[in-house]
Amino acid sequence: MENKSNHTFHIPVMGLSYTIDSPIKVAHLGISSVMSIVEHNMIEKLREHYSKLFDKPFEPINSKIEDFRAKRITSYLNLVDEIVKEKVNKLRNSFEEKREELEKYFELLPSLSNLRHRFDEMVANNSSIQDIQKWISENLHVGDIDVNIMTKLDGPNYIGNEQLPVEQNNAHAALRGFANSTLQSSLVLSAGMNPRLFSYMENFDDFYPDNEGKLKKKIIIKVSDYRSALIQGKFFAKKGLWVSEYRVESGLNCGGHAFATDGYLLGPILEEFKKNREDLLTTTYEIFKDALSKKGKVIPQEIPHTKLTAQGGVGTADEHQFLLDKFNLDSVGWGTPFLLVPEATSVDEYTMQILSDAKEEDLYLSNASPLGVPFNNVRGSSKDVERKNLANAGKPGSSCPKRFLAFNADYSEKPICTASTKYINIKIEELKLQNLNTDEFDQKYEKITEKECLCNGLANSVLLANNIETKMEGEAVSICPGPNMAYYSGRFSLKEMADHIYGRLNLLNTNNRPNMFIKELNMYIDYLNSKIEETTLPFSEKQIKYFETFKTNLNDGIEYYKKMFAENREVLKESYDKIILDLHKLESRLQQFLFEIETA
């Protein structure tokens, strides 16, 4: 079943668990979403839960059987596919009987949707039930049931002390699990290029064009800039694999891990994609055709349809439409606000309240991730509370039962996680030998123990929300909302959020929310400031070059925004004056900040 969406937004992947069952909730209503598929333990529990809920047979997949990781993932994805298909068929045949869900499908669509208008017109004109039923069957499309793999999760797995083959690491197993599933959807690859993982995709026929030149399994790559897209697009094309979507993500204005750019801002990045989109596709298509020819594969006669989408910090209908119109996007990702929509995501009650109450000062970039990458966090999360309590009791760290992020090999041949009790205790013993005063010791102790067990923390929410046992995980939850969360309070229905996205309702809790481009710029200035403050003087030549590049890119971005906002003054209407005022304030702040650094 090839899915199509009549919506101009999608729900990106969030954490390990927040969108893991989103397709079951929203795909039949035409809304696309993305599931993370690396955490096979949680997925197995969820498969059992939904098998019982929808009266499906369930056979557990024991961790002792061969290739259990991939088999668990395949089985869950097949179950999701089956459930969604049944829901869609029921929806398509529901016009004569219970129409509420069918009407909800059309009510969620954009106000100017031709599909929505045609349905209303057929009902108003008293078209025959047979004609309406036939039209519904032909036009009611399903949201995409996409999956995500974080490419960095390819550390080795073990049985005892025996290291398993590369194909048995978590990223490879997840890819194999998706490739062997019945889903006809896309694999979203995030967190950068991984040649070993990308090359592994050559082993699965579903990623190649079929006899009609169509792709059953498609590839989506998250990218931070055009150069990255071109490099990765060419890499795949040389292997006869096609990137069907380039998903541009703001480095600092999204939730989850923050893969910051060197000061490149979202607006200029999207402008470069807009200007070079045709060249990108033409260049990669020629390489793609040559690779397919050498492999004896079917060659599509035309460039396959390729989407350009973006996500990160969008929060109003005007911003949503501006992104679509200005940069010719196919869809815009709305992540963080959907954490407050139980009909779309799975968030436990305690965490839901924390998110609903969060203010700007409660949302921050933390060092909680064992990956060593800045991680969006909210103060008061149950995982943060648990972490602090353990540290204060002299029992910091996690037992690390899942080892998804066990990458550090500084102290042992077998890698360990920097959030594990073993690693943290080693670092604390080293700290004690430094003979620091109390304040210095406490400061460094806090930094060492700041790491959270994300394998458990990011998996727990869906289990708690569905009353599924968490013996392995405990009950503490990690949450990674973007800064946008500060501007929403309460919880919302799916219709309310769709109405907000399409401008039929305003869910913001303030009139002073900064424009998404301004917010990102402010975050990058803060980020540069923090980078400079944590750098020991005098700066090395490498550090000076980095800061100069960062400064140049920010200044170029500010000049771009001046021009962009001026050219779109009529579109921005009453918000224009505030945007320009905020932009000039940030420009002055940046220049003053850089002047102080240069004269220090």
Could you please describe the fold and organization of this structure?
- This protein has helices at 22-26, 40-53, 68-92, 100-107, 114-124, 129-139, 170-179, 195-200, 226-237, 266-295, 317-327, 349-357, 382-392, 421-432, 438-448, 454-457, 460-465, 494-501, 516-533, 541-567, 569-572, 576-598, and strands spanning 9-11, 32-36, 145-150, 158-159, 162-163, 186-190, 218-223, 243-249, 307-311, 331-333, 363-366, 375-378.
- The protein is an alpha/beta fold.
- Among the domains are: 9-338, TIM Barrel, CATH 3.20.20; 514-600.
- The protein has an eight-stranded parallel β-barrel with strand order 1-2-3-6-7-8-9-10, surrounded by four helices. Strands 4-5 form a two-stranded antiparallel sheet.
- α11 links the parallel β9 and β10.
- The longest helix has 30 residues, at 266-295.
- It is globular, with a radius of gyration of 25 Å.
Beta percentage is 5-15%
* Poorly predicted sequence stretches spanning 5 or more consecutive residues: none
Q: In order across it, which strands form the biggest sheet?
A: 1-2-3-6-7-8-9-10
CATH topology of the domain at 9-338: TIM Barrel
Q: Distance N terminus to C terminus?
A: 63 Å
Question: What is the CATH architecture annotation of the domain at 9-338?
Answer: Alpha-Beta Barrel
Radius of gyration: 25 Å
| DSSP E strands, number | 12
Main sheet specs = 8 strands, parallel, barrel
Helix count equals: 22
Identify the quaternary structure here: single chain
CATH class of the domain at 9-338: Alpha Beta
Look at the helices and sheets and give the structural class: alpha/beta
The coarse overall form would be globular
The overall pLDDT, averaged over residues, is 95
Give helix % range: 40-55%
